[in-house]
Amino acid sequence: MKLKIRSLHMENFKGIKSLDVNFSNKTSIKGQNATGKTTVFDAFTWLLFNKNSAGEEKFNVRPLDKDGHRIDNVEIKVVGVIDVDGKEVELSKVQKQNWVKKRGTDTVTLQGNVNSFEIDGYPKSEADFKDYVSGLAQSEDMFKMLANPQYFSSMKWKEQRDILMRLVTDVSDVELAQTDAKYAQLLGELEKAPSTDDIRAKFQKALTEWKKKQSEIPVRIDEAEKSKIDVDVAEQELAKADLTRRIAECDKKIENAGSTLGDLRSKEMQLQFDMSGIAQTMNRELSNRRSNIDADLCGCKNEMDHFKATISLKEKQIADNAKAIADADAERKKLGEQYNSEKAKAFDETPYLFDESKWVFDENSTVCSLCGRKLPADKIEQLKTDFEERKTKAKADAKRKLNDSKSDFITQKESNLEEIKAYGFAKKNLIEELTKKNADLNTEIDALKKQEQDAIAKKEELSKQLSEIPSEADYSQNEEYVKLKAEHDKILADIAKLESEGADKVVTDLKAEKADLQAQLDEVNKVIAQAANNVAIDDRIETLRDEQKEIGQKVADQEQMLYLLEEFIRFKLDKVSESINSHFKTVNFKLFEMQLNGGMKDCCECTVNGVPYSTLNSGHRIVAGLDIIRSLSELYGVSVPIFVDNCEAVSSGNLPDMESQMICLYVSEDKELVVSNE
Hints:
The chain is α+β, with helices and mostly antiparallel strands. Among the domains are: 136 residues, P-loop containing nucleotide triphosphate hydrolases (Rossmann fold, 3-Layer(aba) Sandwich), CATH 3.40.50; 208 residues, no CATH class; 104 residues. It contains 14 helices and 13 strands. Strands 2-1-4-5-6-7 form a 6-stranded antiparallel beta sheet, with helices on one face. A 4-stranded mixed beta sheet has the order 11-12-3-13, with helices on one face. A 3-stranded antiparallel beta sheet has the order 8-9-10. Helix 9 packs antiparallel against helix 13 and helix 10 packs antiparallel against helix 11. It is rod-shaped.
């Protein structure tokens, strides 16, 4: 839809008593400040939307007298002829005051205003009029966005971004990934997951879990290594074999001296071997329990260190936010003082008041300068009449200058107050945002402290379990060992009885020799039993190292998938930005911002040749705004008249040509409005 304004008629609208403006495809309106340039724009938007060009619904459209009081009992009228896709339509809006007489009195009071509407001379209800106007540009917001070069940039960045994203061709993540073979590994996740953020969260969670397991393995290996003893098992086995052989020789000799005693000795030795095996098994089980609990204790310590570091970081964030809140509150108070100071300013009428003392008729002018005689009566009367006309004109000029200056003062004061209010609201919003963030951070800290206390409790429980494990197994708890011990003690008693009853010196010496050998053998068996645990520990260490390799590969796999995902996200975002910016000639939009953690954050920042819109001068902002309007008009298939205020800020020849109708408002030295059409 193409919308153009052909003409605009105004009566008693703000400071304009009567004005007709005809428009072409490009119209220039020039004049000094307060001559009515913006009023023309206001009249057009009031006709369509009952608002001024700034979007304000509450503004004074009624004219004021020389004292700044409203002028009652006059109609305010705006008639606009617009071209809608080549068809002209006349829209009319008239505002009258509603004076109501009180019952039983002659007094009338003002009860507001009444608006009446016409389309092509046919009366319309306000609802029907609004429906028709809404259909012209789809919505009021769209009209403003396409009519005012400054409007789009004044919108919130999220609203700007939502509009720009409509320029992107709808291509799914899967379709985009299929354009490059290196993203093939991601296809399965992209098909299932709602978004790339969900995929990143999944990969990151898995990576964290695998890294936690990875950090635990070296500690467990080190603990296992420390539990081993340094001994040459082969040497001990040779010693055992030699001692066993020598003991057997003693037994044989003793047997020859007394076969009964030899049998008992042989049986006692076997029982000793069996008991030693049971003891080794029970002590090895205790060692394994201690190793497992030590590994769990190490994991608890890592968790506690993590919670403590995270809590410290969030507490710093709270402190930083609190400082920012205090600074913003101080700035807000200063703005309040500025607002009150500005509001207290009053207009000084003194310089503009008419000085009656300077306008006294000169009676000397009634005497002829040549002859000194009094001029004829009619001549004197004419002189007085001319003097009064000049005086009246001078007085009117003084009143007009007073009203104009007062109007400019009020306008500037209102503008200053609105600007201060806007800054104040911005600081208020910042304080509320940071306060909410601190509340959220405190909630997170409470949760982390709860988790930290749980980890401490778990550590204490594990430490208690570790302390309860004895240094040596209680053999009395093993039924088989108790049974063998009872049998062993009985045999020892029998041997002692036989020896006491009749053993000669040879047997006694052999027994002494054997006892010494047996003591050595017991010591060797003890060492071998301890060394036997080394084999189990080595097996455990080898298993842990295999697990370490597998976990290391899992970590590498997750890191690779995260890297590939981030690369895909950057690829996707580059495509999106490229697609959006291809629609513009002058401006570019930065739609994504790289974060310190490598992720991407949504944003929307307009730039011109790399320079942010916020730092551009007024002329460049206008050119940028027109470029945005051009692309949005193409997007929506709608064009409306563009009102370019402060057009003098654009260098000559730099104002771009537009397909839409343009009304350029210039500040000039002209005391009256000058309208020109190209």
